[in-house]
Amino acid sequence: MNRHPTARRVVAGVLASTVAAVALAASVGAQSPSPVVTGERVRLLTHGSFVMNEAAQEAFTAQTGATLEVIPAQDAGSAVNQAILTKDDPIADVLYGVDDTFLSRALEAGIFDPYQPAAASEVPDAFQLDPERRVTPIDYGDVCVNVDLDRFEQQGVTPPMTLEDLTQPQYRAMLVVEDPGISSPGLAFVLATIDRFGENDDYTWLDYWRELRANGVQVASSWDDAYYGAFSGGSGEGDRPLVVSYASSPVAEVYFADPQPSAAPTSSLVDGCYRQVEFAGVLAGTPQPGLARELVDFLLSPTVQQGIPLDMFVYPVLPQVELPLVFREHTAAPIDPVTLDPAVIAANRDRWIEEWTETVLR
């Protein structure tokens, strides 16, 4: 949504991304009996939670004869920054995982060659956020606060139900968030608070963050650090029972458990969730423009779209793709997720991040 998504972009992605990045070319070529590999490769710059299942990898090689090299960055913001810094000599052919919170930065930097796959006509208009169609929507997810249900039950405390609850004394030193200057889910959560509390009322979004700071909020540099390092629930190893993650994170906690529980050990606070849309685009200056376009086509194909829910635990943008049962059973989707116009984000993002930094970190 990061990914993240997922990226995308949620619990399992980072566990598999290192393996995928190192072994992808070998596994694609070695395990598929039919394709003849031409020796060409196409490079995909993405966030660290990117995963493509083995069958999809083999299908890409079968269709194109080329191998896929994944270049993982820590988070969507880092991937965008790398693409911008190297735009005169791009380190990749395609960027995947830039979401609506960082999209305007990427578009303003001119890092994409306009391209839209034919299948983009099947994507709902709500996801088409670039009028010039320089990028293609691939998936979406809802950034929400996740709750460690077991910890709250053990402590005999009722979990929070609203964003406002998070400032209350009974939730002191329980919440971990991501730095919005680096992390796309961190920025998404900040945008949700701006939408909720505004900038001009007697009580503003900065007042809210002052109260969160006074209530002991912890700031992590990335989603990985927040979810795996600080969060106490599910796959986390920390002591904080509240974390900014995704509404679909509980699905991963069920899916990867052995044996699988009948109910997820975590849940999502579906108040004040921000809907992230992730995009892919052909990087300007790529020496492989044809293969780059084929890769964007492939990311929007049914082969990849069907795998997105259980590869990265976010939603595919093609509406005809049926979600797996475990996904349907353990995701509490927000009724009215927050969205902001990318132009509004572009006009205010740097100021908002600076104001947040001054309020929370200094």
Number of helices: 13
Summarize the biggest pleated sheet.
10 strands, mixed
Spell out the CATH superfamily of the largest domain: Periplasmic binding protein-like II
Helix-strand sequence: HEHEHEHEEHEHHEHEHEHHEHH
Roughly how many Å is the radius of gyration? 20 Å
Uncertain parts: 1-37
Tally of discrete structural domains = 2
Helix content: 25-40%
CATH architecture of the largest domain: 3-Layer(aba) Sandwich
Indicate the CATH class of the largest domain.
Alpha Beta
Amount of beta strand: 15-25%
Estimate the global geometry from the Cα principal axes: globular
Number of strands: 10
Please name the CATH topology of the largest domain.
D-Maltodextrin-Binding Protein, domain 2
Helix and strand topology:
Layout: H1 13-31, E1 41-47, H2 54-64, E2 67-73, H3 76-85, E3 94-99, H4 103-108, E4 112-113, E5 136-148, H5 149-155, E6 175-178, H6 184-197, H7 205-214, E7 218-220, H8 223-230, E8 242-246, H9 249-255, E9 266-283, H10 289-299, H11 302-312, E10 315-316, H12 325-330, H13 342-360
Parallel strand pairs: 1-2, 1-3, 6-7, 6-8
Antiparallel strand pairs: 3-9, 4-9, 5-8, 5-9, 5-10
Q: What do these coordinates show?
A:
- This protein has helices at 13-31, 54-64, 76-85, 103-108, 149-155, 184-197, 205-214, 223-230, 249-255, 289-299, 302-312, 325-330, 342-360, and strands spanning 41-47, 67-73, 94-99, 112-113, 136-148, 175-178, 218-220, 242-246, 266-283, 315-316.
- The chain has 362 residues and is α/β, with parallel strands linked by helices.
- The chain folds into 2 domains: 13-141 and 275-328, 3-Layer(aba) Sandwich (D-Maltodextrin-Binding Protein, domain 2); 142-274 and 334-360, Periplasmic binding protein-like II (D-Maltodextrin-Binding Protein, domain 2, 3-Layer(aba) Sandwich).
- Strands 1, 2, 3, 4, 5, 6, 7, 8, 9 and 10 form a 10-stranded mixed beta sheet that branches.
- Strand 1 (41-47), helix 2 and strand 2 (67-73) form a beta-alpha-beta unit.
- Helix 1 (13-31) crosses helix 2.
- The longest helix has 19 residues, at 13-31.
- It starts with 12 loop residues before the first helix and ends with a helix.
